[in-house]
Amino acid sequence: MLNLVLFGPPGAGKGTQSQKLIEKYQLVHLSTGDILRNEIANGTELGLEAKKLMDQGILVPDHVVIGMISNKLDSNKDAKGFIFDGFPRTVAQAEALDALLASKNTAISGMVALEVDDDELQKRLLLRGKDSGRPDDANPEIIRRRIDEYNSKTAPVASFYKEQGKYHSINGIGSIDAIFAEITKVIGNF
Ligand code: AMP
Prior knowledge:
CATH class: Alpha Beta
Order of helices and strands: EHEHHHEHEHHHHEH
Structural class: alpha/beta
Mean pLDDT: 97
Helix content: 55-70%
Radius of gyration: 16 Å
Shape: globular
CATH topology: Rossmann fold
Strand content: 5-15%
Number of strands: 5
Strand order of the largest sheet: 2-3-1-4-5
Bound molecules: adenosine monophosphate
Distance between the termini: 11 Å
CATH superfamily: P-loop containing nucleotide triphosphate hydrolases
Low-confidence stretches: none
């Protein structure tokens, strides 16, 4: 199985690259942000609770997203592999993911981190907000908080995979196709 963690701050291009990767490698795309937005759209209790935090740019509790991922792994038993996009976002989530995959006799193949500086992220997210309609893309203060959440809670996840020898980083500024080519090169060496 190919189980890839696509890592990087909000606006790094994880969603865009995931779309190209699922096509090339026939993987199941698991984006916790998309799953949460789907819950919101369906008006579920989980969605309503999560929305309060998401609209402020704050991470939702670990147990919520771990439960969602666990369900998705169970409902995709025949998958060739998974792309984890926007998950894990804390070390506790990374530990839980390792345990979930181990219980299914598989593991993370590697992490690819897209490196983009904060100024470029601010610009990209504000631009995206014009089309995405996402409330958390529309306001510079909320964007700042999402980047701060990333730096304080999510960045340590990179060390977690470094310690396992699974961390690879790529420059996330450039054309979509050039970045995609870099990612596929890294995956080829997993
Ligand atoms: P994203 O679409 O990945 O940028 O996620 C949008 C928002 O959903 C984040 O700002 C968080 O509030 C929430 N979220 C998504 N994934 C996670 C996660 N793995 N852990 C905690 N919160 C998450």
